[in-house]
Design goal:
The protein is an alpha+beta fold. It has helices spanning 21-27, 31-36, 45-61, 104-117, 134-142; strands at residues 6-7, 11-14, 66-71, 74-84, 88-95, 124-130, 146-157, 160-170. The chain has an 8-stranded mixed sheet, with helices on both faces.
Length: 175
């Protein structure tokens, strides 16, 4: 799949590039991103380089797009879909602490959901978060995800297992 942009006039979602590596590295130092996502810790510049040069292009090639979230062209976060079998994907995101609380993630999730069920032709999008990540859960609930449960020990980060919250959104669901 060829990369494409999404915007609602406030946020712009665009594929991250080498020019974003330093911002990605800086943002991923945030303790909440380290705690609630699967980014490596400590997060090094080489991780951001590998993310931009390898992970992102490979994802787009396999139908799993990743976008940098931009406000006034400034990178403030990341959002993406990981392709799953039979017209399904898992959505994931993180946001710079300085950009939180202004609705940017909610707007970004809505843009990605619209693209998932429209342009990408998906039937289902799944959201997962380590149990306790109330901020991510709030965004998912506002976007219309049903909270389907908790999978005990369902998430892995490094050598540790964590309980995993799961929510789903179907193309046929009211939002």
């Amino acid at each position: 799949m060829e990369p494409f942009e999404l915007t609602d006039g406030t946020v712009l979602l665009r594929t991250p590039t080498a020019a974003d590596v330093d911002d990605i590295t800086r943002i991923c130092q945030d303790p909440d991103i380290q705690r609630w996502t699967t980014v490596p810790g400590p997060y090094l510049r080489e991780h951001a380089v590998g993310f931009v040069e390898d992970f992102v292009p490979a994802g787009w090639a396999k139908g799993g797009p990743t976008w940098g979230i931009r406000e006034s062209e400034r990178l403030v976060g990341m959002i993406g879909l990981t392709a799953q079998p039979v017209r399904s994907a898992e959505i994931g995101w993180w946001l710079d602490p300085d950009a939180r609380g202004r609705g940017l993630m909610g707007r970004s999730v809505e843009l990605v959901i619209e693209a998932a069920f429209g342009r990408l032709g998906l039937d289902r999008v799944e959201w997962r978060a380590f149990a306790g990540n109330e901020a991510s859960r709030a965004v998912a609930v506002r976007a219309g995800f049903s909270m389907d449960g908790c999978i005990r020990g369902g998430a892995v980060k490094g050598e540790a297992r964590y309980d995993d919250w799961v929510g789903t959104l179907l193309a046929t669901d009211r939002r």
